[in-house]
């Protein structure tokens, strides 16, 4: 199916909804959904961003700017997944508890303001990855227009560019809890030091990166083609000192480079192959 046909299907889908509340993180996927929803529904669409310690402050600011650029009504709500020990214990299905908290917050809000649908930015490719959060959203009646129409991750960016969205090539930025190996307890302090470390590197001009945290060790992941430039350009003692000020003791560089979902490689095939 052509990209323009998928766009028309998305528009028709929102037209049938009449009113929709968008679970809006500010990422490329949910921002595309917010843009199309607003183009079709106008003030009958509302974007809602959930704020918690696992969201980088700069990501919240991006979400606000992007929503204002689109013109869609934008609300901020607080979520409290960090108060749930099932979440902070960081099991392999951690995302289930995060999305449960999110949609248990959004659904009453949608009912309060008269929105019959809560929609998210899950795309067709997400359905083939290990995403336990998708199950939590489905259980609470959320819809995923991009997945319903069969829009892939690549097509999300192509559609965003087609619609003139300046952030169409924005790097993916999942929640900060994804920086920790399964089984390591997540705390606010740990989230904050990871967040500060990633912001520090981005301010130095590096993007599409992760700072993985394991115990007192920070492991920097960059695009493989950027690793050599990074080592040559960065004053390593200053970098180490900065990371130690953030709370890490050891600082390492992952020689394989950044790869989305890398921490999932420890999961066995039965879990990865499970339907969600």
UniProtKB/TrEMBL annotation:
CDD domains xrefs: LarE-like
Gene Ontology BP annotations: purine nucleotide metabolic process
Listed InterPro entries: LarE, NAD/GMP_synthase, Ni-pincer_cofactor_biosynth, Rossmann-like_a/b/a_fold
Gene3D superfamilies xref list: HUPs
Molecular function terms, GO-annotated: sulfurtransferase activity
Domain of life according to the entry: Bacteria
Active site per the UniProt annotation: 175
Domain NAD/GMP synthase: 19-78
Protein known as: ATP-utilizing enzyme of the PP-loop superfamily
Organism (species): Nostoc cycadae WK-1
